[in-house]
Write a structure and sequence with these properties.
The protein is α+β, with helices and mostly antiparallel strands. The protein has 3 helices and 5 strands, in the order ααβββββα. The protein has helices at about 10-25, 30-40, 90-110; strands spanning about 45, 50, 60-65, 70-75, 80-85.
Length: about 110
């Protein structure tokens, strides 16, 4: 079991969750709460479950014994991307990373 309890989630629900984090609608969380969730402490690049990259891009990876997933939120170009597989080993994790990168790049071009 993972740190978040290995929560099962449909991929479509995961995408909706990412979009909520992108759009930050006040019906779910205040703008201040979203900013706090996505802002790392002073010197780190990790913010409450999200790795924070260039231009504030958010990234999260998670896995169980049988699944792995990665997600990205890029507010600068308004793109969310998620990739997942129902297997978990080094080759699969690399493929999931490549799929996420391709999806993110495709979204950046549109």
């Amino acid at each position: 079991q993972g740190p978040a309890g290995s929560i099962p989630l449909w991929l479509s629900d995961f995408a909706s969750y990412l979009k909520i984090n992108l759009d930050r609608p006040s019906m779910y969380l205040s703008s201040e709460t979203c900013t706090r969730l996505h802002a790392p402490p002073v010197t780190l690049n990790y913010a409450l479950g999200w790795s924070v990259g260039e231009n504030g891009r958010l990234y999260h990876a998670g896995s169980t014994y049988r699944w792995c997933s990665e997600a990205s939120i890029d507010r600068s170009c308004r793109v969310v991307a998620v990739a997942a597989a129902n297997a978990n080993n080094e080759v699969i994790r690399r493929a999931v990373t490549e799929a996420l990168t391709a999806a993110r790049r495709r979204g950046e071009r549109t």
